[in-house]
Amino acid sequence: MTTLYGLVLVAWAIAFLIVIGEHILWKRREKRRNPEGLPYPPGPRQLPLIGNAFDMPLRKAPLTYGKWAEQYGSLIWLVASGKQYLIVNDYEAMKELLEKRGNIYIDRDNTVLLGEMIGQNRVTPRTPYGPTWRQHRRFLNRALMGPIVKRDYGAPMMRKILSFLTVLLDRPQDFLLENKKMTAELITEIGYGMIRDDEDGGHDFVQMHLNVGKITLTTAEGYWVDHLPWMRHIPSWVPFAQWKRDAIKWRKEYNFARDYMFEAVKMQLLNTRGDGMPTSFVRTLLQEEYSQQGSKSEEELQYSERIIKDTSFSFFRAGAETTESVIRSFLLAMTLHPQIQARVRSEIDAVIGHNRFPSLEDRGVEKMPYLESTLLESMRWHPPVSSIIPHLPIRDDTFRGYFIPKGTTIIANAWHVGRDPQLYHEPNVFKPERFLKRNENDGPLTLDTSTLNPLEYVFGFGRRICPGRELALQNIWIIAVFVLWAFEIRAKEGMSMEDGYKAADEERFNFAIVSQTLPFECDFVPRSQKALQMIRKAAI
Ligand code: HEM
């Protein structure tokens, strides 16, 4: 026993020495890279060796970053665990760095356990800058362009929303869970054309994704090996190396899910040549690749297949919870603001009426400006990815007189932009009309371009901007218009606005990687008998 403790002590001493050694080397490197001695942006005081390790917020980080902005200004510098962080709180700086200098601020962070050891570096949002990432983007952009989204993905969206409406009729209390299910199933169906297969008794694709999501959540906080990468070489049989044994198990589960779903679609395509197969991201891209079979080598085809497999697997990770988040915010906003909801409903009634379902042809600011601005306001009020996904510069840079070394983790605080009083009058008030104006007294409402449109930042910036934004916006619109066409959303009976819903915004959202409203309740009251019949009939 004593020997074991001795060994552990020695291991810790070695780890400590390595940390000191790395720190000294890092300091020297920094000096060489910044010969003019340009300052770093201000930030909380750094302690020797550990820097700001104890300052890094573990929960609701965007709120802490926002508070720091009052103290240090909009650019904040932090150093922790051998990494440098630049928190950016103002929109102009985000635009300049991540968009105008998008060719520099284009890389992603590497995490040893989740990224390298489990394999998440292969999904697009985590893929480092380079030829593989560029090929990811080519495929994603090709399959997610606006016209393609409208042509190919409108139909599955309509099917999903109709079954969601029947759930709202039968089990309205389950609306949060069903919203999660609807967005998860849709994104899986768009990616693979199916949500389960018939092989071996069938695998539930959505469940596979959700299991993988749990792995991401468990590991996202980081492990020692993320700070001391040499630890990855520790054999899995060593006592205290449970993390290594877990990583091996998780990698298997992760790879199985990714490969299985892709192979299911590929086999179906090879067996049927696509006859009777539903349209999907994987099918479309594979078909295109196979049609060029003559002009491509075997390796080129295999490489393309790998990229299609990885990009389709990214869909769920990037597209499901984000869309779910906007819908939750929208539903909460409608519950909290009955007058705004009534105005959106009357706009829907005027354009669509109650004798037909809404359709994608009804979409557009010129047709239903108030609905559009309410959706924009929902995204400003609560951007789903509150701190974007960090961008890293691929070379040293200077900005506003400060030195920004290559590899700095740039965190853009989108939440803070949405609450910036310089950009939005009364930013804590939910006010869709802030995005609208009338050119003449009686003229139609149009978008007021003098107010910063949240679409300029909630989907990120530059060459890393979200490739799924058209798909997401179309889906969000369809869900919102159908729900308010069919129902009036009311605050839960017996629960007044004062006791049930009145909370500061900071308390309403969880600010996780993809932030969600906390659970809330509301009633869905059918608006017309006719609509009710139409929903029931369509769902049969
Ligand atoms: C409301 C819904 C959505 C929001 C708010 C959202 C937001 C974002 C944000 C902030 C980023 C990071 C951009 C950056 O680094 O600058 C991102 C990246 C990404 N999103 Fe979305 N997204 C949504 C829906 C979707 C959907 C539906 C898909 C795909 C079907 C998708 C696929 C991706 C991918 C693949 C990336 C990684 C891009 C890269 O690293 O090159 N997203 N998204």
Automatic annotation (TrEMBL):
Highest taxon in the source lineage: Eukaryota
An example Gene Ontology molecular-function term: monooxygenase activity
Cofactor(s) required, per the database record: heme
Keyword Metal-binding in record: yes
Positions contributing to heme binding: 466
InterPro entries: Cyt_P450, Cyt_P450_CS, Cyt_P450_E_grp-I, Cyt_P450_sf, Cytochrome_P450_fung
Pathway: Secondary metabolite biosynthesis
Chain ranges passing through the membrane: 6-26
SUPFAM superfamilies in alphabetical order: Cytochrome P450
PANTHER family: P450, PUTATIVE (EUROFUNG)-RELATED, P450, PUTATIVE (EUROFUNG)-RELATED-RELATED
Family stated for the protein in its record: Belongs to the cytochrome P450 family.
Designated name of the protein: Cytochrome P450
Lineage of producing organism: Eukaryota, Fungi, Dikarya, Basidiomycota, Agaricomycotina
